[in-house]
Amino acid sequence: MKAVVIGCGRVxxxxxxxxxxxxxxxxxxxxxxxxxVRLGDGWTGGFLVGHAMDTRVLEKAGVADAxxxxxxxxxxxxxxxxxxxxxxxxxxxxxxxxxxxxxRATFYGERGLHTVCPTQTAISxxxxxxxxxxxxxxxxxx
Amino acid sequence: xxVLVAGGGKxxxxxxxxxxxxxxxxxxxxxxxxxxALLEDEFGPIVTRGDATEIYVxxxxxxARPPELLLAVTGDDEDNLVISQIAKDGYRVDKAIxxxxxPRNQAHFHLLGIQQTICATTSILGLVEHELPDxxxxxxxxxxGEGLEIVEVQIVGSSPAAGSRVGGVKIPExxxxxxxxxxxxxxxxxxxxxxxxGDQVLALVHxxxxxxLRHALLGAG
Lengths: 142, 221
Hints:
- The complex is a heterodimer.
- In chain A, 44% of the residues lie in helices and 19% in strands.
- Chain A is built from five helices and six strands.
- Chain A has a six-stranded parallel beta sheet with strand order 3-2-1-4-5-6, with helices on both faces.
- In chain A, helix 4 links the parallel strand 5 and strand 6 (114-116).
- Chain B has seven helices and eleven strands.
- Chain B has helices at residues 10-21, 33-43, 55-60, 77-91, 106-111, 120-131, 210-218; strands at 2-6, 25-30, 47-49, 69-72, 95-99, 117-118, 137-143, 148-154, 176-182, 185-188, 200-206.
- A six-stranded parallel beta sheet of chain B has the order 3-2-1-4-5-6, sandwiched between helices. A five-stranded antiparallel beta sheet of chain B has the order 7-8-11-9-10.
- In chain B, strand 9 and strand 10 form a beta hairpin.
- At the A-B interface, helix 3 and helix 4 of A face helix 4 and helix 5 of B.
């Protein structure tokens, strides 16, 4: 199975390494050449320097026959546009897009794009972490 | 008309000024604080400070009314695309015009449902084409929704169509010769009109057949 990972930051690089370990054929795209450092010495997948808004870069990365794509650059709107291009133009079956803004993640999520929002996850986890204390306080007061 | 302008750079600010002068109601969004302060000095309370790709900022600026027209004219193509999509899909804004800064991104706008775009680079190149002699086929106007173009063709002595009646020139299906400009005058085309070297022929053609039309009128050269 073939996957393309757009953006080689903390998230993109770690996802790419995980996919490779799971046996995927992985190519990573990032604007900056030095981003490849995050993939480590043992990286045997592909790495391409370029902007993923450029279809020539996407095609060189092999999106035409990719089964999955993860889009995690540091720009929400860039991710939303590239994710839709991968879904609609290249018809990749499984496209996952990282979006930091919960409102936009929900908006596009409701319209058929698989968005993942770490901010929303953090909010939920933080609230869950505080709930036992609140419950204990309420029990004490009650 | 109520217009929402996203992006208060040169394009957004000048559009706002013109629209206000024409008597329209405008709401303008600008993210950079220094730029927004300047715009507030000139336009007053119609300016909203913030990132126009944030849904709550769009709502503050009045997208929910909704505007009859949205201009997405920031300097960032991804932002313009997302703003237009949110407006059309989320708030039923009928008409959205998006600025394309990098012409290579044009196809993304069309793919993602934003048909009305403006690209300064493409417009300038169109003008350059028009000024260049011997270019053959010049695109004057693109009707994007219809997939049609109005083009101008300069007939030369070696053109296969030179000396032929319009009715005898085999042009691609769905295209039509409109008029011929010669000796400072424009003549509307009928089948009997003979095409001559020096003629500037105006034609309506489907985007996909433009190359075939060029070939029919000018040959392979």
